[in-house]
């Protein structure tokens, strides 16, 4: 049986709300999310909280604990004094839905505005080859669990709601840096996009994003400042511009075997073949291969809204539950001729 | 099926929390310390830069970094390794050629920016504490857009570090000529080593030596250099403060020896 501790939890919705006091039992080894769950089980059964893995890996239970943006499941109760009142509030930067649950769709909107990895021309999927040293910088940013604590703490939007349209936030600066440092990404305009569309110039590198990151990603030092410096190369540094023209660095940095940095286009009908033809060609060598150049069946129209985009969250979609990544109208199992996969066979089995 | 989830209809409000911040720790301590220490340092440096005396120890050829290179016609001739061409006016520091660049190098430094934006400009004073301004445009406009010129001040700082290194070398000077070695040499050397560490740990330096590359595998030498600078870079904040300390200490030591308040501890000659 643990001891009683003082808790203050913000209760309310988008119309009003206030901090409500609770006396609640705390046992050894518990985290703040455990206490929130105990409140739900005992005193406040309608307390709304978003949570999922309880292991600091899903990024759902972001909240503000004693004014600091934290993950509820990663904040140990042993870090507080026994007499201390623990105040738990929802994220301030995003609109509140109810109690500790906020609408973080701002972040999904910003994610959608950032162009995805652009495949290089002349290299088919499955033929990408990268050196570990070339990708390890980007791999740090892949640790992001999208808890949006960095987005929440960033004063650019936390204290200035009006900057939201112009500013993408730290989470998407690391995404931009990841792609700009990616050895095979074919886009050359990511530095300009970081300035013009993401508003990286709004960042004044006060490093709160790095301070709150539960994955300990060095957001400022390894992503934002390098992106700022890359933007300087591109936009503010006449010497770097001249150097790249004289020494043709743009070609030096290109992966071997590249004819152009143009973004790859979908293979046209002339280069495609049926799975059977491809299998016959590959089977002559007896190897295991996939026909990456096969033209896939054209999917049905995605359920886009009036803005031509998919709904940001399942809340705003027509269907309950997440959409199928294959398209909601694709039926399984698929017909064999529509499948890219080719089962490996030995040559003598033909 | 009923659902509480609704389609967003325009701007929806944030949680109505009255308190500006609910932080219970001493978040104001770090900005307070920064303001106090930086103000103290700038006051000391300003007084010393315009003092125009006690910058040179003639016996041992110690020159304080605040007067390096000494290029004013008012400089002691032996201290002027790089010629004397600036007019000797009280409002022009003897090292007026380098001091503005050093100031701008530190002013545009990514660490000092964090420090003074937080402490002097309260933007924000600490994480999750509201910033003290009605509107905010960051570094997108004049004058703060010039923070992007940091790399040019880094190039200048490299040249100045070379000059400081030269000063530390010629300071191995015995009384009356020849080789000499005293405590002042260790102070000057320690300062130069720390200045190099701070200058090379600069974020712009990290970008220039290798960070700008997309393919480290094609540039193994630059990749190693980048790795070295990255290690230093992780300590940029500490080095920024350490060099403020070593600069002040070196200057105070040279001043004290020059003014005759203390005598230099000599190990050799």
From TrEMBL, chain A:
GO cellular component: plasma membrane
Superkingdom: Bacteria
Pfam families assigned: Fer2_3 (PF13085), Fer4_8 (PF13183)
Pathway the protein contributes to: Carbohydrate metabolism; tricarboxylic acid cycle
InterPro entries assigned: 2Fe-2S_ferredoxin-like_sf, 2Fe-2S_ferredoxin-type, 2Fe2S_fd_BS, 4Fe4S_Fe-S-bd, Beta-grasp_dom_sf, Helical_ferredxn, SDH/FRD_Iron-Sulfur, Succ_DH/fum_Rdtase_Fe-S
UniProt xrefs under CDD domains: fer2 (cd00207)
GO biological process, one term: tricarboxylic acid cycle
Transmembrane segments annotated in the record for this chain: none
Domain 2Fe-2S ferredoxin-type: 5-92
Cofactor dependency: [2Fe-2S] cluster; [4Fe-4S] cluster; [3Fe-4S] cluster
Single GO MF annotation: metal ion binding
Keywords noted in UniProt: 2Fe-2S, 4Fe-4S, Iron, Iron-sulfur, Metal-binding, Oxidoreductase
Family: Belongs to the succinate dehydrogenase/fumarate reductase iron-sulfur protein family.
Name of the protein in question: 2Fe-2S ferredoxin-type domain-containing protein
Lineage: Bacteria, Bacillati, Actinomycetota, Actinomycetes, Micromonosporales
């Amino acid at each position: 049986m643990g001891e009683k501790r003082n808790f203050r939890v913000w209760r309310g919705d988008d119309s009003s709300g206030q901090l409500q006091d609770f006396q609640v039992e705390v046992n050894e080894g518990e985290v703040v999310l455990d206490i929130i769950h105990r409140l739900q089980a005992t005193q406040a059964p309608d307390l709304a909280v978003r949570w999922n893995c309880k292991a600091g890996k899903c990024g759902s239970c972001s909240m503000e604990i004693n004014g600091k943006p934290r993950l509820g499941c990663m904040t140990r109760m042993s870090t507080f004094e026994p007499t201390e009142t623990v105040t738990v509030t929802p994220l301030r930067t995003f609109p509140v839905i109810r109690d500790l649950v906020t609408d973080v769709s701002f972040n999904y909107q910003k994610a959608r505005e950032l162009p995805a990895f652009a495949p290089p021309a002349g290299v088919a999927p499955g033929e990408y080859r990268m050196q570990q040293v070339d990708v390890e910088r980007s791999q740090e940013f892949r640790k992001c669990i999208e808890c949006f604590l960095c987005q929440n703490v960033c004063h650019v939007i936390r204290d200035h709601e009006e900057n939201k349209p112009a500013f993408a936030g730290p989470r998407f600066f690391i995404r931009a840096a990841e792609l700009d440092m990616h050895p095979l990404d074919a886009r050359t305009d990511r530095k300009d996009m970081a300035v013009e569309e993401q508003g990286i110039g709004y960042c004044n590198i006060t490093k709160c994003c790095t301070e709150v990151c539960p994955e300990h990603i060095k957001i400022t030092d390894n992503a934002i400042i390098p992106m700022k410096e890359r933007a300087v190369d591109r936009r503010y540094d006449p010497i770097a511009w001249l150097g790249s023209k004289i020494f043709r660095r743009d070609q030096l940095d290109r992966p071997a075997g590249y004819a152009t940095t143009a973004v790859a286009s979908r293979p046209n009908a002339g280069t495609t073949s049926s799975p059977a033809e491809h299998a016959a060609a590959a089977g002559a060598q007896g190897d295991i291969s996939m026909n990456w150049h096969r033209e896939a069946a054209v999917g049905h129209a995605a359920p886009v809204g009036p803005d031509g985009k998919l709904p940001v969250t399942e809340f705003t979609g027509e269907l309950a539950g997440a959409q199928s990544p294959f398209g909601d109208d694709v039926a399984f199992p698929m017909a064999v001729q529509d499948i890219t996969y080719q089962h490996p066979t030995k040559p003598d089995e033909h | 099926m009923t659902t509480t989830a609704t389609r967003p209809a325009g701007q929806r409000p944030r949680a109505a929390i009255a308190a500006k911040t609910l932080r219970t720790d001493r978040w104001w301590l770090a900005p307070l310390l920064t303001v106090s220490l930086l103000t103290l340092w700038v006051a000391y440096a300003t007084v010393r830069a315009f003092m125009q005396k006690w910058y040179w120890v003639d016996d041992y050829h110690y020159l304080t970094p605040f007067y390096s290179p000494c290029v004013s016609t008012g400089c002691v001739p032996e201290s002027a390794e790089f010629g004397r061409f600036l007019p000797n006016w009280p409002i022009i520091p003897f090292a007026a050629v380098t001091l503005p660049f050093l100031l701008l190098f530190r002013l545009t430094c990514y660490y000092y920016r964090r420090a003074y934006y937080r402490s002097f400009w309260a933007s924000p004073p600490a994480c999750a504490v509201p910033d003290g301004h009605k509107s905010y445009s960051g570094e997108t406009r004049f004058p703060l857009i010039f923070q992007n010129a940091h790399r040019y001040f880094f190039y200048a700082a490299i040249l100045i570090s070379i000059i400081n290194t030269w000063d530390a070398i010629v300071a191995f000077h015995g009384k009356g000529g020849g080789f000499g070695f005293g405590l002042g040499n260790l102070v000057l050397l320690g300062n130069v080593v720390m200045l190099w560490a701070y200058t090379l740990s600069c974020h712009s330096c990290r970008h220039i030596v290798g960070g700008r590359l997309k393919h480290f595998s094609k540039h193994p030498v630059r990749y190693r250099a980048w790795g070295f600078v990255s290690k230093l870079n992780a300590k940029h904040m500490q080095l920024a403060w350490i060099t403020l300390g070593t600069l002040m200490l070196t200057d105070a030591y040279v001043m004290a020896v020059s003014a005759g308040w203390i005598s230099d501890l000599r190990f050799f000659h």
